[in-house]
Amino acid sequence: MTEPDPGAPTAPPSAAADPDRLAPADLFAAVASSILSSLAVFLVAALALQIGDSLDFGAASLGFLVSLYYLSAALTSIPLSRLVEAIGSLRAMRWGCALMGMLLILAGAAPNFPCLLIVIALAGAVSAGVQPATNLFIVRRIPSAHQGFALGIKQAAVPIAVLIAGLSVPAIALTIGWRWGFIIAAVIAFATSMALPPSRSSLAEYRAHPPTVKQLGRSGVNSLVLLAVGFGLGVAAASALSAFAVTAVVAANLGHGTAGLVAGLGGCCAAVVRVGIGIHADRSRSPHLVVVASMLGLGAIAYLMLAASTLTVPALLIPGIMLAFGAGWGWNGLFNLAVVRRYPTQAARATGITSVGARAGGVIGPAVFGVVVTHGSYTWAWLIAAASAMLGASIILFGRRMLDSDPALASQQQG
């Protein structure tokens, strides 16, 4: 085999023998890093009742804390995506896991709410670096025929983090205390950092795949900004759901243990849907963004079910949460797949831009939801979530039309 041209795409070392083979080690690296980069904020959300009793804060403060996490991630997403391209995806993932381990220890030892607030804000920045790193890693290391599945698995990492966090309520918080949940998570983060391939492999990858110097055009940036707005509105509703699912179930008098299990099952449902949608995307030519908008529409229906459960039909609560997690939060991997296939040579920067919208939605959603719950009711909060999901679906469809009508983007697309 001849030496590849340094400026041209080459098969990754893990796929040298068979370029169409999906290497399990690559999949593990992306999924484990994504789970751990998101775990801190979801542990706080799941353990909010126990942490709140210990550190003296309520629903509005929880919403502010989760929003600060996403604000920190939004502000650092674009510059950190450029850093990722400079140092390599594996090195960024390895350092990110180690940093998250240290932050999880600090969160578990937090003596008061302001200290916890600072730690979670730093965790948001770490997550903002790890997520584009895993996207870039998948685009450059995973064969294109498996990228939908890989991105689905990778995006399933977030609801898996919710599942882990939810299960920590009956398994840890109600037995040995909430602080141990963070300590155990920190040990896993350090172990994962050491299990990832050494950064030397990342440097070799980037010698074969030098960062592109081509900049996104004005039309490309405009399209991505529009998609980012729709993405953000969908995430605003979903992040509020993930932050307040436990407290909503407790408010319905179903108990703390039951609430943690419901949140965990909801996260599992979202994970299964993300993987299934990714497999479907690899095997079909369905318009990805249309499917994303349709799922957001189903999510809006789920939020309306939750609103109804607070009024006259309490039996709709658990089915509504499952549908909201599955449809209303199961589309993220497919959205990222649509973006990286539109911009295959600039995957990190493109997803860095759209991630700003997602992070901004994460800032607004829990904050508004928490304020509405505190000064109004869960009914109004779920209605606002439904409206946000529907508006996000509409904007994403409009953004897709803008992409399809711009011939300048066609030259960057695969296939």
From TrEMBL:
<keyword id="KW-0472">Membrane</keyword>
<feature type="transmembrane region" description="Helical">
    <location>
        <begin position="379"/>
        <end position="399"/>
    </location>
</feature>
<feature type="transmembrane region" description="Helical">
    <location>
        <begin position="289"/>
        <end position="311"/>
    </location>
</feature>
<keyword id="KW-1133">Transmembrane helix</keyword>
<feature type="transmembrane region" description="Helical">
    <location>
        <begin position="27"/>
        <end position="51"/>
    </location>
</feature>
<feature type="transmembrane region" description="Helical">
    <location>
        <begin position="178"/>
        <end position="197"/>
    </location>
</feature>
<dbReference type="Pfam" id="PF07690">
    <property type="entry name" value="MFS_1"/>
</dbReference>
<protein>
    <submittedName>
        <fullName>MFS transporter</fullName>
    </submittedName>
</protein>
<feature type="transmembrane region" description="Helical">
    <location>
        <begin position="352"/>
        <end position="373"/>
    </location>
</feature>
<feature type="transmembrane region" description="Helical">
    <location>
        <begin position="92"/>
        <end position="110"/>
    </location>
</feature>
<dbReference type="InterPro" id="IPR052952">
    <property type="entry name" value="MFS-Transporter"/>
</dbReference>
<feature type="transmembrane region" description="Helical">
    <location>
        <begin position="258"/>
        <end position="277"/>
    </location>
</feature>
<feature type="transmembrane region" description="Helical">
    <location>
        <begin position="57"/>
        <end position="80"/>
    </location>
</feature>
<feature type="transmembrane region" description="Helical">
    <location>
        <begin position="116"/>
        <end position="139"/>
    </location>
</feature>
<feature type="transmembrane region" description="Helical">
    <location>
        <begin position="151"/>
        <end position="172"/>
    </location>
</feature>
<feature type="transmembrane region" description="Helical">
    <location>
        <begin position="317"/>
        <end position="340"/>
    </location>
</feature>
<dbReference type="InterPro" id="IPR020846">
    <property type="entry name" value="MFS_dom"/>
</dbReference>
<keyword id="KW-0812">Transmembrane</keyword>
<dbReference type="InterPro" id="IPR036259">
    <property type="entry name" value="MFS_trans_sf"/>
</dbReference>
<dbReference type="InterPro" id="IPR011701">
    <property type="entry name" value="MFS"/>
</dbReference>
<feature type="transmembrane region" description="Helical">
    <location>
        <begin position="224"/>
        <end position="252"/>
    </location>
</feature>
<feature type="domain" description="Major facilitator superfamily (MFS) profile">
    <location>
        <begin position="26"/>
        <end position="404"/>
    </location>
</feature>
